[in-house]
Design a protein that fits this description.
Two copies of one chain form a homodimer. By secondary structure, chain A is of the alpha+beta class. Chain A contains seven helices and eleven strands. In chain A, the strands form three sheets. A four-stranded antiparallel β-sheet of chain A has the order 1-8-3-6. In chain A, helix 4 crosses helix 6. Chain A is globular. Chains A and B meet through strand 2, strand 5 and helix 3 of A and strand 2, strand 5 and helix 3 of B. Chain B binds a DNA duplex through helix 6.
DNA sequence: CACGTTCCGTTACGAATTGTCACGCATTGC
DNA sequence: GCAATGCGTGACAATTCGTAACGGAACGTG
């Protein structure tokens, strides 16, 4: 890791990423008696294709989840922050590789036990379905980003998303840490490290952010950043929605 | 629609796309007594943000599912073929808009009933979780495609995926229909219509495919197409997997 | 039935964003 | 100290985009 920053990141998480839970949850309670395990930066929690024998909760640190093409091209499908749940695959094999970005503390729970718990805790199933749905929603956001946003928009979107994720309350954080490298960010956003670097520089020159260090970002003009991200302002969302003018066949019968 | 092609597409589906089921399923049985409804091409089944009151099964035809950015940029998150299930959102609102590409026949089932059925049919929950997982897997494939594949690779991947989807048995179809327009394909693959067109032409010139009509594709060299897609040959998959050489911390304890 | 219109797909060509390659610098760890 | 790693920047190349024009097929209208 390049510069110095505190690896510990506060517990939180009101947004999805790859099978992760938020706030109070029956899921969390499963881990209560589990020992805390530690893994070093860049070590893997599991590999894509491994038998999915455990689910994990991230206690501290950040994970990256990724898939590879045969020739080595990589896409990071998500980052996992403290308080989030990992590995609730409903398949018998993990869909992606999970690696530590920072030193990570986590707890694990055997999937076999999990399915037993499903019977005991009726709300757990719904919670798992809700988590899967959040995942799917996040995945679709990401598809839209990858398919249609410019480099600048992707970086802005990323910063805003992290700011929302990191902050325990509703208010997005004004200053955020990015423990992952530029390469991680590039592979998450479908760019190269050079383009990521240039986009950061451009946002800095425009005064929207400042970069005390490469891994620390201050959001100086969050609203402007939001505008650059290509998404609606949170405010104008309720009224706007200029429903497409065309055919509206939404159920005559 | 431009050229003539049979709108009806055979029932099938061994692959995921946006909450869809395959083969025999308890889910399917729910729809048994439901009337068949018809919608016209380009009409919407529902809009993103609508209350998610129903789940649907596609009987005939093809749907497109998409999300929009405020300025109108679109990404199609998936196409839905006959036999597939739609709308098993675990949220109270739909995450995306669903529109008919062709004339579509479908059945619907109230979500309220669905949750009642969950209690009666214990396997249904697992089925829903499995569907969500398939969705997630497909979404991640798509992220990898959008983030890291070239235009040529995207088109090749798309053709192969459709060939697999359409064919009822394991053998991918050699000749496929693409009822959607070039714009739909472009918005699905994160390209422009011109680039899609150019990629088709290039594959044609290289002899990998032929195009009897814009909506009909013959896969002349499926293996070569597979190679162009950037994915591994299905054969070499089992042996290969040259596990990354580096850190292997997969659980000392 | 003929005509015009519209939509869609293809191709061409110039433009732009992003990628590639190269280098310098700072920090870290041995 | 010194090598290794990560970040930033510049020059240049390449893929993809954007604009435009054209042709064919389907559709509507007279």
């Amino acid at each position: 890791m390049a510069t110095t920053f505190p690896y510990a990141i506060a517990r939180s998480a009101p947004v999805p990423i790859l099978v992760r839970a938020a706030g109070e949850s029956q899921f969390r309670s499963l881990f209560a008696t589990r020992p805390i395990e530690r893994i070093e930066p860049n070590a893997a929690v599991f590999w894509e294709g491994d038998p999915a024998n455990h689910v994990f909760e991230v206690i501290e640190g950040v994970l990256r989840l990724y898939r590879l093409l045969p020739d080595g091209r990589r896409t990071i499908t998500g980052f996992l922050f403290p308080g989030e749940i990992l590995g609730v695959a409903f398949k018998d094999r993990y869909l992606f590789t999970a690696e530590a970005v920072t030193p990570v503390k986590l707890q694990r729970y055997p999937r076999a036990h999990l399915y037993a718990s499903l019977a005991r805790m009726p709300g757990l199933t719904r919670e798992m379905l809700a988590m899967a749905c959040d995942e799917l929603s996040a995945a679709q956001d990401q598809m839209l980003l990858l398919a249609r946003k410019t480099a600048q928009e992707r970086i802005a979107s990323f910063l805003i998303a992290v700011a929302r994720r990191i902050s325990p309350d509703a208010t997005p954080a004004r200053e955020i840490e990015l423990p992952m490298t530029r390469l991680d960010i590039a592979d998450y956003l479908g760019l190269t490290i050079e383009t990521v670097s240039r986009a950061f520089t451009k946002l800095k020159l425009e005064g929207l952010i400042s970069l005390p260090s490469p891994h620390r970002v201050m959001l100086r003009k969050p609203d402007a950043l939001q505008a650059v991200s290509g998404e609606d302002e949170p405010d104008e969302a309720p009224m706007a929605a200029p429903r497409r003018t065309v055919r509206s066949a939404v159920w005559p019968s």
